[in-house]
Specification:
The protein is an alpha+beta fold. It has five helices and six strands.
Length: 140
């Protein structure tokens, strides 16, 4: 069984991590925007730093190689493990969760604004069904 390692993070470290991520992500071509989400924004103990990225090109092999290399680069820069998720084909509930995080890079504000509006509208239309499905699943 693998042991989960947690890292302590103070508020000033959190801002430093976000600043370093901004610098490193700005060097990467092909990114439309990037968000940090999850425990690094909410907790003083983190397992890793969660980063969601939206790519211009999503061809499979290139995407996997880029994610692996970027994860290593970002982890070295911030001194914590970094988990990267590509948002281009992400399920709506996950996308909604990520987009409620902290924006760290945006190269196309119009695209991002349109996407935020679309995701929020579609998620809020779907939310009652998700809630009922969850209630039914746990009631069974």
């Amino acid at each position: 069984m693998m042991k989960t390692v947690f890292h302590a993070i103070r508020p000033e470290q959190r801002e430093d991590v976000l600043a370093k991520l901004r610098v490193e992500l700005a060097r990467v071509s092909g990114l439309r925007f990037a968000y940090v989400y999850g425990s690094v924004l909410e907790s003083d103990r983190v397992h890793d730093v969660d980063v969601g990225i939206f790519l211009d090109d999503t061809s499979g092999a290139q995407q996997m190689n880029m994610m692996d290399a970027l994860s290593v680069t970002l982890s070295a820069a911030v001194g914590l493990p970094v988990d990267i998720r590509v948002l281009n084909e992400a399920p709506l509930p996950f996308l909604y969760h990520v987009l409620r995080g902290k924006l760290v890079l945006c190269r196309d504000e119009t695209f991002l604004t349109d996407m935020l509006e679309d995701v929020a509208r579609r998620y809020l239309d779907l939310a009652p069904f998700l809630l009922n499905g969850t209630k039914e699943a746990f009631a069974a």
